[in-house]
UniProtKB/TrEMBL annotation:
Residues 5-327 form the FAD-binding domain. Gene3D superfamilies: FAD/NAD(P)-binding domain. It comes from the Bacteria. This is FAD-dependent oxidoreductase. Keywords: Oxidoreductase.
Amino acid sequence: MDERTTCVVVGGGPAGMVLGLLLARAGVEVTVLEKHGDFLRDFRGDTVHPSTLHLLDELGLGERFASLPQSRLDEVAFPVDDGPQIVIADLRRLRTPHPYVAMVPQWDLLNLLADAGAAEPTFTLRMRAEVTELIQEAGRVQGVRYRGPDGKSREIRADLTVACDGRWSIARRQAELRPREFPVPIDAWWFRLPRDPDDDPAGLTPRVGQGRFAVVIPREGYLQIAYLARKGTDAQLRARGIEHFRRDIAELSPSFADRVGALASMDDVKHLDVRLNRLDRWHVDGLLCLGDAAHAMSPVGGVGINLAVQDAVAAATLLAEPLRRGRVTPAELAAVRKRRLLPTILVQRLQRIMHRNLVEPILDGRRAGPPRVVLGLLRRFPALSLVPAYLIGIGVRPEHAPPFARRPPSGVAVDDQGG
């Protein structure tokens, strides 16, 4: 059976779910298509930064989010050989209601957004709905074809299609929008180890060895670890096997030596092909790309999910009224990119600088941490740790919920003018 909606969103990740919820609260009929049957997938973006936490408060979802099992990070610190560790980013210095990064499994956040969307009469979420093709007629995108839970092909036509389907976006590819790729020297391998009572519960701490680099993230009941190595070495790592990988991790961080046995095989180590790219144009007539579909980010800094959410807020703010009118022009779609381009460029440039001046020298064995001049400044002037904390936690242009989407805590209804 073919369908009709005002806006169809391809992909039920953070950007897609936030966009769907906000548009529905504006009274726009919106359908989100998610190809999986649930949101349960390991090692997706699980960092919810202060800017996103503030947004959840504005949406009336802050208390419900706070009730989810989570750990909180309030600093990024780097160990040094000649003294105590240096705090690179001190989130506690931020003047914001939530001066920390909440570490929450992404599926919990997505389920929360899905529940909030279900309360809106114009919101529809279809699971196990895999988009296979754009409908392109009369020079514009008119919707999508997708495969439903029964395997049958369906059509859903819409005034606007929004691609929130990630860095390998099928919608972007079919619209022949090609991102500009930036060189990335690293890939990441994610795994988890048991958490010890002596582990720092609130600090994100890199572990550095000769030509090796890992980032340890304390989670609720376990440690999530990102092991960084040269791009293109996944086959080599896997060929060496789990015993070699365990020894590598134990040498990098001796405190993990009694825990690496929790890695049963290399199947427990998940490879992330790190990409850094950006579309020069985020739209064609009838289609808009957001989040990773518009700009894939490096995991360095952990900002990808929060940039994607801010893209969604900006898109809802700018496009709700045109969608209510029943027609979104290419110029109105271009306005979304214009609003979100500067933050995207600045974050990607910062990530490239960090790749070049921090990660690469460590992997090459030329340095064991940040440049000495940086460490010296932070040791002498600790307040400087506010600058990276702001860039990580708040960002260059944080977006706030538009008035039509705001709600008081506990889901108490207000009219569309509330805020």
